[in-house]
């Protein structure tokens, strides 16, 4: 049966998956955004529902002023003895342009009730540094030993080559304390200079080591190794590495970072990341959705005790697998702010210091009290973001904002990072209120508002991003500017683009708090 890929569109990279009974649970990276690590649920591998996040409290996650691409990387989810475990790491400093990184200490959180996000524990930190942590519980069942694998730079660089030298290391750990109980050993390095995303499983008499190699851009690929001895190796390279290879001219690119799951019928599957660029004439345009890397699903078969993923073929947008079916995620989504808590799927940039919003002070409105940081500051602004998951759609909100200071603003934003964003909002000067459109490149433009009505703000998404507003019921849309998709995806001068495009709501003051609230009546994609 054929089905559509990606199965979880938009900014959802580095998938990790586990099955408990008939239920599948999948998690992805969140980088510098809060809450951290979304948890998706499915019973058929096709329709996935966001059911919560693993890191929702300041006692679990403190992400403050990291560069774009910092924060929480590539978590792994596992289940053992009635307990769900999630392993991850959080970069507080990430400046690859200067080869300046602080290797984070990994950690894990756990719960017995994955449906209640408040039950996840505070983190237990590992002694071992690195990223892409994985703990396999296969070995706990055999001799009580737990192995932790992670990625960091080799102690001794490769002589004569300018490589990243990111390699897979493994050590034993005391899970209760996180303390290492053995020295780490290097078990896999790559000629590309990057071996990461390690997952170790046991099947039959073999242990299998899966690694993502070549970096997460055009050279990305997935490799496999096996050992009859144990997780320390020796490791035998698979006969058909990489397990598949998508190139820079394919409809799906940058594929890799796979994790495996077996369904209740004995079928095996792999989830992995990929991007969907759009063809524009003779060139590819970076995907506003998939540059953040999306979650794909493909079949896995075992032949001669080696895994064969997707039949060894390239990953495509239409895939085949037993028992699956065609499904398209709907464009329409709306939040009327009618509940006492924010809907799942809203994100903050960084961990907020204070409570700067309310859903109860004015029922049926999201009330924001803008904090002292504008959107260009690395700190956490008063801003709520949602992932764009369809290339062609319209984002819309209705705003009531009557500022008393010339140094405050509220509106809606097209967001990539604090270097690259485009906003349309309400401000005031001595003559009254006006609309300001600030594109990601170029100068701001302003349009006078003649009355005190609520303002509808919108962003049309497609071949470009177009920004407009309506003043009052029945007013025509005033389209006041646009931003090319290329400009919206501009690479930052520091950090990296690991996320896809997001849209959001904000209120801000220039080094001061907004004393007047901004009230949003709704937010929607349509």
From TrEMBL:
SUPFAM superfamilies referenced in this protein's UniProt entry, alphabetically: Arabinanase/levansucrase/invertase, Concanavalin A-like lectins/glucanases
Coiled coil, from the record: none
Leader sequence segment: none
Taxonomy, superkingdom: Eukaryota
Keyword Signal listed: yes
Keyword Signal included in the entry's annotation: yes
Key words of the record: Glycosidase, Hydrolase, Signal
Protein name (record): Concanavalin A-like lectin/glucanase subgroup
Organism: Penicillium bovifimosum
Native organism taxonomy: Eukaryota, Fungi, Dikarya, Ascomycota, Pezizomycotina
């Amino acid at each position: 049966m054929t089905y559509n890929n990606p199965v979880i569109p938009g900014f959802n990279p580095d998938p990790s998956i586990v099955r408990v009974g008939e239920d599948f649970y999948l998690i992805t990276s969140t980088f510098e955004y809060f809450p951290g690590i979304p948890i998706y649920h499915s019973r058929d591998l096709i329709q996935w529902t966001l059911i919560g996040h693993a890191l929702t409290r300041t006692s679990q996650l403190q992400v403050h002023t990291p560069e774009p691409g910092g924060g929480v990387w590539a978590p792994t989810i596992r289940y053992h003895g009635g307990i769900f475990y999630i392993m991850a790491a959080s970069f507080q400093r990430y400046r690859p342009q200067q080869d300046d990184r602080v290797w984070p200490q990994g950690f894990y959180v756990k719960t017995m009730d994955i449906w209640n996000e408040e039950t996840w524990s505070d983190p237990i930190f590992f002694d071992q540094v690195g990223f892409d942590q994985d703990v396999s519980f296969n070995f706990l069942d055999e001799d009580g030993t737990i192995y932790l694998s992670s990625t960091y730079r080799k102690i001794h660089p490769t002589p004569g080559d300018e490589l990243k030298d990111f390699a897979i290391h493994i050590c034993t750990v005391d899970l209760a304390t996180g303390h290492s109980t053995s020295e780490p050993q290097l078990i896999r390095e790559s000629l590309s200079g990057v071996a990461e995303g390690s997952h170790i499983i046991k099947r039959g008499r073999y242990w299998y080591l899966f690694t993502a190699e070549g970096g997460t851009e055009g050279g990305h690929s997935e490799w496999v190794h096996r050992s009859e001895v144990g997780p320390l190796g020796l490791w035998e390279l698979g006969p058909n590495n990489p397990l598949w290879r998508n190139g820079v001219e394919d409809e799906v690119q940058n594929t890799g970072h796979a994790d495996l799951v077996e369904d209740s019928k004995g079928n095996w599957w792999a989830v992995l990341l990929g991007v969907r660029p759009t063809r524009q004439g003779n060139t590819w345009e970076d995907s506003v959705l998939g540059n953040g890397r999306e979650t794909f699903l493909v079949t896995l078969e075992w032949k001669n005790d080696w895994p064969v993923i997707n039949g060894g073929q390239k990953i495509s947008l239409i895939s085949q697998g037993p028992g699956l079916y065609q499904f398209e995620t709907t464009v329409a989504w709306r939040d009327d702010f009618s509940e006492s808590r924010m809907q799942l799927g809203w994100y903050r940039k960084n961990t907020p210091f204070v409570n700067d919003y309310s859903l109860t002070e004015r029922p049926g409105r999201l009330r924001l009290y803008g904090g002292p940081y504008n959107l260009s500051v690395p700190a956490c602004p008063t801003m709520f973001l949602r992932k764009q998951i369809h290339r062609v759609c319209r984002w819309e909100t209705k705003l009531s904002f009557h500022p008393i200071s010339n140094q405050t603003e509220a509106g809606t934003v097209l967001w990539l990072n604090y270097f690259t964003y485009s906003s349309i909002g309400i401000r005031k000067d001595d003559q009254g209120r006006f609309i300001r459109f600030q594109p990601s490149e170029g100068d701001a433009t302003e349009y006078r508002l003649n009355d005190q009505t609520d303002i509808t703000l919108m962003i049309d998404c497609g071949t470009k991003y177009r920004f407009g507003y309506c003043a009052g019921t029945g007013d025509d849309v005033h389209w006041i500017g646009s931003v090319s998709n290329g400009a919206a995806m501009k690479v930052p001068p520091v950090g990296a683009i690991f996320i896809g495009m997001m849209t959001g709501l904000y209120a801000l003051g220039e080094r001061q708090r907004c004393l007047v609230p901004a009230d949003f009546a709704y937010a929607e994609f349509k």
